[in-house]
Every structure is written in structure tokens, then in C-alpha cells.
Amino acid sequence: MAVRLLIENIGMLATPTGQSACRGAEQGEITVSKNAYVAVGEDGNIVEVGTGTVPAGLRDAEQVVDAEGGLVTPGLVDAHTHLVFGGWREHELALKLRGVPYLDILAQGGGILSTVRMTREASFEELVEKSCKALSMMLALGTTTCEAKSGYGLNLETELKQLRVIQKCGEIQPVELAATFLGAHALPEEYKENREEYVRLVCEEMIPKVAEEKLAEFCDVFCETGVFTAEETRQILEAGIRHGLPAKVHADEIDPIGGSQLAGQLHAVSAEHLICTPDEGIASMAEGGTVAVLLPATSFYLDKTFARARDMMAANVPVAVATDFNPGSCPNLSLPMAMNLACYKYRMTPEEVLTAATLNAAAAIGRADRIGSLEVGKQGDLVIWDAPNLDFIFYRFGNNLVRKVAKKGVLC
Ligand code: NIG
Ligand code: FE
User: Fold this and answer.
1) CA–CA distance, 264 with 243 (Å, rounded to integer)
2) Which of 207, 240, 256, 366 has its CA 20 to 30 A from that of 383?
3) What is the pTM of this model?
4) Which CATH fold would you assign to the domain 77-363?
């Protein structure tokens, strides 16, 4: 097969390996090769990864890139974002600084609900343009695949609009998107006195429509005090599963009300946030094969404690790290920033974090067979860093050290 891209003179190639999430000690057992090269074929998949002299056949590649002795890793996978939304919420900063809690802002009709109003008003085109702008910044920071949730519509029309925006963005720019339906992100104001009816609407009208139109791959619920109870979450996620949408859960972000236990019981593909997860939640996730998607930049921004990543890894729960990019609890789209925080605050090693932001993140969005590692047959998604080794990108922070990004063997 013709070679689309050859990257040579790689000082260090660092990658997890395999087609499924790594758990326990495996999470830190990455492959590190010095003086390496990688070649991507015409179909966008990796045809060879090696060390030493580049074989003559590969040198005829359409494009040859000199990594100048730098680090190469798989393209980063951001497994939790709220990419599509109208407006911003910078006015909440002053409230936050005065100590007003996140859930109080929501209970007063602000927070998520104010973004819902702005998202309902925004046109499809405006949302596409704004989301693509965010995606191009993410790409420049090394993200080549990104999960994106709906959840700022909270009515059928706007939830579908958000999901169609995700679909459109996936078609017109390089970052691959995985859509998640999050119709149960908050109780909309018009159902304040009638929560049962909203849960019914999500289960019986929104989920069937989203599944029928193939607009999402997963179904998620914000299981939280004042948002959706564990029982309502179960009802909604079971409806999703019946319609072919595997479960994800926003669990234990502020209060531990049973979300992580439920995630394990439902064999959810992931439980996300997990800031205050109890032992029973960790045991349940380990048992259910659920990936823990941890969001350290949200802990940082909400000034909360940090998830028990080391306890989760010790209990054989695969850990992924994502941004949680959204206009409220984490208006940050840098996955390297989240990776740095994971290292400093979760005390995860650079090797464990690399797995968390690549292969385990890919597993959290059902793509570990195709992306998340640099191996023959996997997609040619990779990052060339302005760094001589893996430790360097964790040691430095607050600077964009991404030099070049390739998606399916095409430089972006
Ligand atoms: O993951 N917790 C729920 N959803 C988002 C925040 C959304 C918002 O504040 O707009 C999160 O933190
Ligand atoms: Fe979130």
C-alpha cells in the first residue's frame, strides 16, 4: 500500500497498547521506543512502527516529516465535553468568587438553565461556527477525537438541533466526534412542577427519536442532588440501553447519591466526574467494567476535592482523563491542562495519564479497537510534541507544546 505519511527521527515514541482499556498496573505499562519512526498508509491506518533505520520503501511516502528528536504520542482523545452551547457565562465568575455554590446558581434558574435559554435561541449555523472554533483550538492542543454531549436543549427540538450540530461539525473539520444524548442534564423550567412528565418525555419521545435518527452513540444523565435522582437516572439509562444507546453517567460530581453504584450495575461504558465517589461506587464500577472518566480541571475550577484516581486504579477500574469543556463548571478546552492536573493532583504518573487520555479515553467512547494507541492497523492519529520525552510535557504546564498533529495520517 502507498504510504501517506512517514514521521521519522522521533526521539521518543510513547504509547499504550491494546484494543481495550488498561486497568490496574497495566495502566502505567506503556511502550516507549527511542529513535523511532511511524508510517501511515493511504487508508489512514498505521502500516509500520519501528526503530532505527527507516526501510527504503517507506521513504517514498507522500509526506515525510522530521520529528527533530521530539516526542510522538497517539492523538489525544477527549472523552467528556459539552461542546455545543449558546453564549457564555462569564457573569458567574463574580458569584463564584463570592462563594455562591454551583448548585445554588442552578437552583435559581441560572447555570445550565441560562445556557439552555441561549442555546434554544442560537441558530444551527451559529452553533456550528462556534463549535468548530472550539474544535480547532482543541486540535491545536492535540485532541484528535472528542466526545460531545447535548443537554442544553432540554426539549426535543433543541436537543436534536445540538446533536445535528455535532454531526455537521464531524463532517466539516478533522476532529472525529462521538455524540452523547444528555437530555437529562437538568430539569427544564417548564417542567419544574412536573418532573415525572419530563422523565417520561426523555424516555418515550426523545430517546426513541435520537436512536431512530442515529444522532447519538450514548445516553448520559446528570445524577445529582436537585437534578436527577438515582432512580430517575436508572429509568432513563435503561430506556437508552433498550434503544441501543449504552449508558454514561455524570456521577458523584457534588454529592454521592448513588450514580457510580448505578453505573456499575448497568455496565455503563463510563461514569464521569466521580469527585466524591464512595468505596461501594468504586467496587461497583470495577465489577461492571465501567471506565472512570475523571475531570480534574472541573475540580480545580469548582474548587472541589480531586477524584480518588489512585484508589480507582488500585481497584482495577480503568481511569480516563478528559476536559469537561462547558460554559459553566469548566470553560477550558485544553486536554494537556487536564493531563497536567491529573499528574499533580491525582498523583498519576505520566505513563498512567498518557493511557488515560488516549487508549482508556477511546474505550470510554467505544473506539479502543480503532484509536488510542500507535500500533499497526490503528488509525494514524498522532501528536508530535516540542518535548524530548514524556516526562517533559508533564513537567512543563500552561504552554502549548504541541508542534504538529496528524489525523488519519493527514497533517492538520
Ligand atoms: O459536567 N455537571 C453537569 N454538567 C456540566 C456542567 C454544565 C454547565 O455548568 O453548564 C459538568 O460539569
Ligand atoms: Fe459534564
Assistant:
1) 19
2) 366
3) 0.98
4) TIM Barrel (3.20.20)
